[in-house]
Amino acid sequence: MRNVLFVISGPSGVGKGTIVDLLLSEDSDLVESVSCTTRAPRAGEVNGREYFFITEHEFRDRIAANDFLEYDEHFGNFYGTPRSFVERCLKEKSVLLEIDVVGALNAKRLMPERTVLIMVTPPSLQELERRLSARGSEGEEALKERMRRVRYELDQAPLYDYVVVNDDLQRTKHEIQEIIRKEKEKSI
Length: 188
Ligand code: ADP
Ligand code: 5GP
Description:
By secondary structure, this protein is an alpha/beta fold. It has helices at 16-26, 56-64, 83-89, 101-110, 125-135, 140-155, 169-185; strands spanning 5-9, 30-32, 35-37, 51-53, 68-74, 77-82, 94-98, 115-121, 162-165. The strands form two sheets. It has a five-stranded parallel sheet, sandwiched between helices. It has a four-stranded mixed sheet with strand order 4-3-6-5. Strand 5 (68-74) and strand 6 form a beta hairpin.
């Protein structure tokens, strides 16, 4: 069995966070890397759980110190994957990253043999918008901004190793668990 860096991407509101929580709760051999961000926490988000919420000043210092495996800017905020955590965990387990398409492709470039890219897509754009507004975490403008980025993200699907439609949550979870199982068994 090999330890793999699994990257889950997909448009905001497609269900990535929900799926990742289910995967982690059912597989103790999988660990999620918590990213750093300069965006403000949403209601209910806890520092160190969803993200490490840090200042832009601190983020820039950490970029300079090469502390991020990859980082990117979205919607005016920085997001980055802590390098040391991922490298340390990969010695013992498989690691899950929930990051955007640019970050995913950067991770694949850095660790091509170890990285498996999974894109989660919505059954339809209408359903995506419904989920995003049902979550109620964004104001009208932020919601529109996120919807504008969707087409770009979905267009990157051919660059991914797997594309999974998140229609029924349980079905999606099983499909991804099967991908994880198969990929860990591959000998490369
Ligand atoms: P993301 O992390 O991709 O931004 P979330 O996990 O926050 O998305 O999911 C957005 C909303 O959609 C949440 O309210 C979640 O409960 C809901 N959701 C997730 N998966 C499904 C699904 N398969 N069917 C219906 N609703 C879903
Ligand atoms: P949100 O603000 O909705 O939590 O996330 C906005 C976007 O940032 C999402 O597309 C999410 O996948 C992405 N993201 C979260 N963490 C990281 C990270 O560490 N690196 C990169 N490149 N993107 C991230």
